[in-house]
What we know:
CATH topology of the largest domain: BirA Bifunctional Protein, domain 2
CATH superfamily of the largest domain: Bira Bifunctional Protein, Domain 2
Strand content: 25-35%
Radius of gyration: 18 Å
Order of helices and strands: HEHEEEHEEEEHHHEEEEE
Low-confidence stretches: none
Bound molecules: biotin
Helix content: 25-40%
CATH class of the largest domain: Alpha Beta
Amino acid sequence: xxxDRFTYDSLRRALGQQPFRFYExxxxxxxxxxxxxxxxxxxxxGALVIAEEQTAGRGRQGRTWxxxxxxxxxxxxxLRPHLVPDQLPRMIMLGSVAVAxxxxxxxxxxxxxxxxxxVLIRGRKVCGILSEATWEGDRMGPIVLGIGINVRVDFxxxxxxxxxTSLETELGQPVDRHTLLANLVGHLLNWSQRVQDPMLVEVxxxxxxxxxxxxxxxxxxxxxxxxEGLAEAVDDxxxxxxxxxxxxxxxxxxxxxxxxxxxxx
Length: 265
Ligand code: BTN
């Protein structure tokens, strides 16, 4: 395993002038980033919280996210985009295209996005993205965009083995996490200037492997009310448009989606 341990100095070298806070061990970088953002109204958009290890990392829909020390990239970026609440899905688009742009020079078209927020390599999840807005009354405050990339997390023998993977497993060679971080932050900052740009939606759409595939949609965490159909499109609001066999079209805003495996002809 390469010695690419994070220290404050090594991160300062990788991130240049970008404001950041680094912790060896936190509950969740999301919580520290939210507290930082709310306690400092002058903190510029793009400030980062980075941790080597999370003891209570969060995923979507109340799931936990595993960040063992030295094996992943776990960061939360504080953003102050000019968005109305209906446009919040753009934050997931921003995170997704930034991660895809970071990984694709290493892995080419093995990288794909799965609606709504997963980054896959050869069909297995390598990265998850979590966007959490803060609210001051009914006014939206800063947004905390969390990104977790499995760099060398070992899933062998775990129940996640068939669904999750790590960058080094897929590449078959070591990855330097500082380089990865610097590239990712560059793409995030670049796209964060363009959250209103229609190109963001177009580029995101281009990476989505969900489109044109049969999917099972799970609107509820307990698996109830699931339905199957063709994932026809995503609209500009980030919703997935699914055509049921009955011809009915449904607009799915929040759900888990599984691709239906179709046997080769
Ligand atoms: C998901 O796929 O459900 C989203 C996972 C998001 C994980 C990242 S790791 C950094 C940040 N801190 C957290 O607690 N979660 C996000």
